[in-house]
Design goal:
355 residues, alpha/beta, FAD/NAD(P)-binding domain, Polyamine Oxidase, Chain A, domain 2, 3 domains, 5-stranded mixed β-sheet, 10 helices, 26% helix, 23% strand
Length: 355
Amino acid sequence: MKINTIIIGSGISGLTIAAGLETRNFLILEARDRIGGRILTHPDTHLDMGAAWIHGSINNPLNKFLDRNKMIPISTSNPWMHSADTLIKYLNTTCEISEPDRQQLINKWRDLIIQIAAIPNKTIMEAFTQLLPDADMKSFLYMMEVWCGGSLDNIPTSFLTNSLDGLFGDYSGEHCLFKNGATSLVDAIVASSNHNILERIQYNKVVTDIIYEHNVVEIVVADGSKYYCDKLCITIPPGPLLNIRFSPPLTEERMNAISQIKMGAYKKIQLEFDSVFWNDAPMILTYNPVPIIDKRRIEYILWNNYMYSKNKPILEAICPANIGWALSGKPDEEIVDQIMMNLRAFYPLAPDPVA
């Protein structure tokens, strides 16, 4: 049977498209055994293993699905790139940086952004090395990688053009977490539809081929099944997209465009403790020049404080780009030891996590 519309992928994009369809004659093919894509919330703790934030509340297309009473505002602007209005505690090996000193540091960041952006045809790291700013400016490099999820060895200085006003791809307004986890957004999108979206999802369907001829689209799945439709919407990330064979093939221009889309690498390490020994800020930035993983120094770690947002004695270490790659594949015990070394630079008596 030919279907009017097929959507590949049941992440936020695929579900939002499905919720807006007028036709009931549609199908969603999902490679996993669950919906949500990069959103995965622990059912008991409401902690988000994957995507966790709403980045900006003004003109955000997801607003129509959000219940603001179920959101936790963290910052009035991007807390990583424009952190002046965000309550983040900066801890080094000896003391907590005062708020006036933190604001002064942020002002130095702004000046540095302008200088880096003015250097053409360089990566941010190359320009940073060329300028040789104060050592405390390295914290800005880390915060930038937290936002991008990519190594500054690869990101061009043009990324910082108009950075004082630019929003780096997010929306203006409050940046928020979800009280009950980001899965609540998935549930809201599904519930908003006039159709039963869940009945129209087929799981464990890894698409291998897409064939278009005679105004009909044929989709071939790894298990050998085939589907036919008038309209096809692909919402999967560029990596899996490059694994699909198209007939006729995509143009060289389109293939080049897809290959240039970069996906960030972002590791989250959640540590639960018996009791709280840290301060009550929603975010904590720790500094320790000692820990080294695979010859890469890990000086800064940003911690999300889930005692603040979820009333749970859990700290979440953010390990973007190179730091996350260096930790990948290592035993959990080794990862915890390395991360705790950073935390214990300021909290030397911090106990081992219980989970």
